[in-house]
Each structure stands twice: as structure tokens, then as C-alpha cells.
């Protein structure tokens, strides 16, 4: 979807066009949900926070100003703020719950368990990174955005995004248990 | 193992773009590069999706928020300003009321301060009294318990404050001042003719040689002010002593004889009392001398400007000063605080200890 269309929807939504609001919602709901899903530990919390983001979007649309940044940058900022606020409010809550949002058609329970374990591992590792690093890795490798798109959304330069990606992946790889390989990498690939 | 691995952000970015092209999803081969491998793992992770129920719930929540939010063209600020008009009007009205009330209260206090005798005493016209005489009821007479005593009705002040006995004695000594507004014990001597209310003249009929008084007094306020005398505390240096009154901060305060003997001009005192009912004078109930004026013990030299004659205070009472010398220190030390006639002589009346009111002292206490 081109940014021209999105900007058009935003303008119409600002003038009270509920159909345009609906289009914005349909276009961004899944991406916002995935972003939040990886940043919190519970599917239910991710759904609630996603709802909050779109309520905030509706409330904030009248005051939205076009600054040249993509509209989704604004949505991701709202989502990030909601997540940070959520973690502030729920520091002592249990980490995760049963998750049925992983669309898994596999009939093998072992596969399902393995996939759940994998995503829990990735979530736990991501949560060790900074907010910006988490956002960048989700944009780049969950949403498959380019460096330039990620830079636009995060209001950073592509070079800054690449440097942040480098740092974030080193930490993520370390957290995912590739300590030996990371040390090898940091030694310049020498065995 | 000596593979070439990306070592800087740019080469890593290039490698990632090659292994995981933006906008494409799909299986990728495992990489030997741990950073690329971490990115591949993240990219290959299951993509969570919202169930239809969750989508419906989120949609409903958003629509609820949308229904609360009016037309998008209305800014929140404008909406707030418009919707808060009644609240702002109410706040403004409350503020005006508070300010007005404060002004009224300040005016009330001012009136109370300037016109303390706002209360008037009215007696029933049927009451018959006989003005007491000094021979039958000396000022020092023990106050008679009035039976059934005066009945004070005060519509504004539910609980009348009874005065201290000292106040009653003070009133007995100074008949110009009426303690009636606060008196639960009515002394015949304390009802002088000057206290006769404007509406009806109280009369008193003694039934025995020691007259007992039976009357009903109704205390009414001419305004909405409290009718009891104002209790006031004054603390400061005595500016002057005139007869039985002293002046502090230009406030005239009536003292009894015992208290009067213990104070001097310049003393720092604390007076607790109340305003007399019909004057601006304050009746002292209690007096506390906070600090006495230092009395020079020696070294004082007085010179008569007319003749050049000098007199030196020896520090004891062996050398009385000549009449022309104020010598207040010597006189206070050796004559008990009065200096009859001296300030009348030379007219300056101020040698540093007092404030030049020797005339008043001489007149009032010199007998």
C-alpha cells in the first residue's frame, strides 16, 4: 500500500470519515499486533494493548500532523509507548501465558510445543534489548522492512539503523546461546 | 575454520539484505554467521495472528473510542474549551463569591476593630433601679452575686464568654467602663448612668441595705457582629502613662492601680483585655511585663540650660535632683516611679527613658 493512499486515508479520517479510519485500522492491525506481541509476554496483553493503540489512534488523529514521516511511524510510537507503560505497570506480573495466536496447522503436538518454545526463547531474548533495538529487529526481521523503511519509521538515518542492528544482533545472538560463535565472530572469524 | 565474516554494520547489513531480502518471507538456509543466524531465527519464527474474536474485540474497542471522539476536525483543545464552559463559569462564580466574601469579612473585621462597642444594652422599661452611691457601694466592694443575675440573650453568639473577676474589679474601679456585655455577675456599681442604653433608662431598686439587683438585660447587636467585647492582646513598649491609662502603639489601655504601679514608660508589656463597650479604650484584664526599662544607676548628669547649673546622679538616693532636672532615673529609682511636677517645669520631660509625658503622670498620680 503506497504512502499516498495512507496519507489520503489519514486526511479523510481527520475529517470524520469513519471508512477511512476503518481502512487505517485494517491496514495496520496485524503489524501493530505482531510488534506488541513480541514485546510483551502474553497474547491477551498484546491484544489489549493493540486495542489501546487504535483507540489512541482514533483520539489522536485530529491532532496528527504530516511531518514527512510515514503514518506507521506514529502508530509504532504509540505502540512503543503503550508497551513501555504496560511494563512499568506490570513489573511483578507472571511472564507468559498459554498462547493460541500462533496459527499452527500442524497436527503434531511436539511441533506445536517446539514452535512455542522457539517464540518464547526469541521473546525472552528480545526483552533483554533496548526499546529501540527491539523495535528495529522486529521491523527488520519480523516485518521484513528494509533499512531505509526502518530508518524512516524510527526517525533515524540508515547508517544509524545499521549500526544499531549490528549491536542488537550481537546481543541477540549471544542471548540465543550462540556464545561461542559470537566470540568467534568478535575475534574476526579466526578459529 | 577461517571463513570471511562481516565485521562492520554496513557489511552485515549487506549480508542480511542478501540472505533475508526485505519484503520477502520464506525459508532461508542456516548461516554460519551467528548474527545472520540470529536474524534468520527471528525471521523464521511463527507469525502470530489475531483470532477473529480478538479482531472483533479490538475493533469494537476502537469504535467505542471513535464514538466518544467527535468529528475529526474538532481539535481536542477546542472541544475541551467548549465543553468546559459551564465548569469555568462555575469556577469563576465561586472565585467571585470567595473574593466578595473575603472583602466582606475584612470589612467586618475592620468595623469590629474601629467600632468595638457595636453592641448595645437594652433593658426592659419596667425595670426600676436606683443609681448606687459611692457611700453605699464603694468601688472596692465585693461583687454581689446577682440573683438571678443578668440574663444575657445574644442571638449571634450562642455561648457568652464570662469575664474574669479582674475585669469586673476593673470595671468597679472605673465606672466609665461597663463589663455588662460579658458579665454573668452583675455588680450594682458597674451600672453607671453613662451606661444607660439609648432606648430605655435602666433603674435599680435596692431591696435591702445592701441592694440586690434583679433585672433582665438583653444584649442586642446593632449589626450582625458578635456583641461581646473584643478580646485583644497588645504587646509593645509603653509610650506614655496618663493617669490610670497607658498608651501602647497609640492604643489607650486602662489598668488598675496595682498593675499601674508596676509599669513604667518604655517597659515592654503584654496586655490582654477587651474593648470597653462605649469607647475605644481597652480594659486590661492581665498585664505581663516582658522587659523593664533599664534604669540608669549612675553617671547621669543633668544641666540646666538656663543657668548652666549641673546635677550628677550619684547612683544612690543620697543626692536628690533639683526641680529643674528631669532625673527620671533617679526619681523612678528613689521615688517609686513618679516625678511629680518635674516635667511641668522644664517641659522636655524626656531624658531618654520615657517619652515626655510627665504632665500626665504628674496630674494623675501626683496627689
Describe the structure.
The complex is a heterodimer of chains A (191) and B (367). With 191 residues, chain A is mainly α. Chain A is built from nine helices and no strands. Chain A has helices at residues 3-14, 18-39, 43-60, 71-89, 109-126, 131-142, 147-154, 158-175, 179-186. In chain A, helix 2 crosses helix 6 (131-142). Chain A is globular. In chain B, strands 3-7-8-6-5-4 form a six-stranded mixed β-sheet. In chain B, strands 1-2 form a two-stranded antiparallel sheet. In chain B, strands 9-10 form a two-stranded antiparallel sheet. Chain B is α+β, with helices and mostly antiparallel strands. Chain B contains ten helices and ten strands. In chain B, helix 1 (9-19) packs across helix 2 (34-44). At the A-B interface, helix 2, helix 3, helix 5, helix 6 and helix 8 of A face helix 1, helix 2 and helix 3 of B.
Brief summary:
Chain A is an all-alpha fold. Chain A is 71% helix and 0% strand.
What attributes characterize this protein structure?
heterodimer; A: 191 residues; mainly alpha; globular; B: 367 residues; alpha+beta; six-stranded mixed beta sheet; two-stranded antiparallel sheet; 10 helices; 31% helix; elongated
Report the sheet-strand fraction of chain A.
Answer: under 5%
| Helix/strand class of chain A | mainly alpha
- The helicity of chain A comes to over 70%
The largest β sheet of chain A comes out as: none
Q: Describe the strand arrangement of the main beta sheet of chain B, using strand numbers.
A: 3-7-8-6-5-4
On the 0 to 100 scale, the average pLDDT of chain A is: 86
Q: What share of residues are in beta strands of chain B?
A: 5-15%
Q: What is the overall number of helices of chain B?
A: 10
Tally of DSSP β-strands of chain B: 10
Low-confidence stretches of chain A: none
Q: Give the largest interface pair and sizes.
A: A-B, 66 and 53 residues
Mean pLDDT of chain B: 63
Order of helices and strands of chain A: HHHHHHHHH
How would a crystallographer describe the biggest sheet of chain B?
6 strands, mixed
Amino acid at each position: 500500500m503506497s504512502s499516498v493512499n495512507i496519507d489520503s486515508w489519514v486526511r479523510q479520517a481527520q475529517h470524520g470519515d469513519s471508512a477511512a479510519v476503518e481502512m487505517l485500522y485494517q491496514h495496520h492491525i496485524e503489524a501493530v499486533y505482531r510488534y506488541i506481541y513480541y514485546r510483551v509476554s502474553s497474547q491477551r496483553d498484546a491484544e489489549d494493548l493493540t486495542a489501546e493503540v487504535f483507540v489512541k489512534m482514533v483520539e489522536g488523529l485530529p491532532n496528527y500532523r504530516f511531518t514527512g514521516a510515514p503514518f506507521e511511524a506514529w502508530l509504532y510510537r504509540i505502540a512503543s509507548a503503550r508497551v513501555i507503560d504496560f511494563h512499568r505497570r506490570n513489573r511483578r506480573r507472571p511472564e507468559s501465558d498459554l498462547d493460541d495466536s500462533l496459527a499452527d496447522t500442524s497436527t503434531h503436538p511436539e511441533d506445536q510445543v517446539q514452535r512455542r518454545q522457539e517464540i518464547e526463547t526469541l521473546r525472552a531474548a528480545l526483552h533483554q534489548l533496548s526499546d529501540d533495538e527491539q523495535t528495529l529487529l522486529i521491523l527488520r526481521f519480523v516485518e521484513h522492512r528494509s533499512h531505509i523503511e526502518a530508518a524512516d519509521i524510527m526517525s533515524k538515518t540508515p547508517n544509524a539503523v545499521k549500526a544499531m542492528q549490528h549491536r542488537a544482533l550481537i546481543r541477540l545472538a549471544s542471548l540465543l546461546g550462540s556464545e561461542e560463535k559470537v566470540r568467534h565472530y568478535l575475534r574476526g572469524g579466526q578459529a | 575454520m577461517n571463513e570471511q565474516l562481516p565485521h562492520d554494520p554496513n557489511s552485515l547489513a549487506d549480508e542480511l539484505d542478501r540472505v533475508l531480502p526485505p519484503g520477502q518471507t520464506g525459508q532461508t538456509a542456516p548461516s554460519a554467521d551467528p548474527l545472520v543466524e540470529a536474524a534468520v531465527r527471528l525471521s523464521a519464527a511463527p507469525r502470530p495472528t489475531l483470532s477473529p474474536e480478538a479482531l472483533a474485540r479490538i475493533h469494537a474497542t476502537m469504535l467505542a473510542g471513535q464514538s466518544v471522539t467527535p468529528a475529526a476536525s474538532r481539535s481536542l483543545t477546542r472541544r475541551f474549551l467548549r465543553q468546559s464552559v459551564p465548569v469555568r463559569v462555575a469556577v469563576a462564580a465561586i472565585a467571585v463569591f470567595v473574593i466578595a466574601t473575603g472583602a466582606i469579612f475584612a470589612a467586618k473585621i475592620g468595623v469590629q476593630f474601629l467600632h468595638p462597642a457595636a453592641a448595645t444594652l437594652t433593658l426592659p422599661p419596667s425595670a426600676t433601679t436606683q443609681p448606687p452611691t459611692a457611700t453605699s457601694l464603694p468601688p472596692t466592694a465585693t461583687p454581689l452575686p446577682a440573683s438571678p443575675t443578668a440574663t444575657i440573650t445574644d442571638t449571634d453568639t450562642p455561648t457568652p464568654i464570662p469575664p474574669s473577676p479582674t475585669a469586673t474589679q476593673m470595671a468597679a474601679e472605673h465606672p466609665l467602663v461597663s463589663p455588662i456585655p460579658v458579665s454573668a455577675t452583675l455588680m450594682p456599681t458597674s451600672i453607671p448612668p453613662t451606661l444607660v442604653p439609648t432606648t430605655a433608662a435602666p433603674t435599680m431598686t435596692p431591696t435591702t441595705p445592701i441592694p440586690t439587683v434583679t433585672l433582665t438585660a438583653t444584649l442586642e447587636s446593632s449589626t450582625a457582629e458578635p456583641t461581646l467585647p473584643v478580646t485583644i492582646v497588645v504587646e509593645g513598649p509603653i509610650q506614655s502613662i496618663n493617669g490610670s491609662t497607658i498608651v501602647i502603639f497609640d492604643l489607650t489601655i486602662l489598668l488598675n492601680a496595682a498593675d499601674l504601679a508596676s509599669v513604667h514608660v518604655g517597659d515592654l508589656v503584654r496586655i490582654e483585655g477587651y474593648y470597653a463597650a462605649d469607647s475605644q479604650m481597652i480594659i486590661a484584664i492581665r498585664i505581663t511585663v516582658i522587659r523593664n526599662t533599664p534604669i540608669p544607676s549612675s553617671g547621669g548628669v543633668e544641666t540646666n540650660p538656663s543657668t548652666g547649673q549641673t546635677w550628677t546622679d550619684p547612683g544612690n538616693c543620697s543626692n536628690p535632683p533639683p526641680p529643674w532636672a528631669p532625673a527620671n532615673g533617679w526619681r523612678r529609682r528613689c521615688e517609686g516611679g513618679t516625678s511629680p511636677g518635674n516635667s511641668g517645669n522644664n517641659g522636655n520631660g524626656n531624658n531618654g527613658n520615657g517619652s515626655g509625658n510627665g504632665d500626665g503622670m504628674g496630674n494623675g498620680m501626683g496627689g
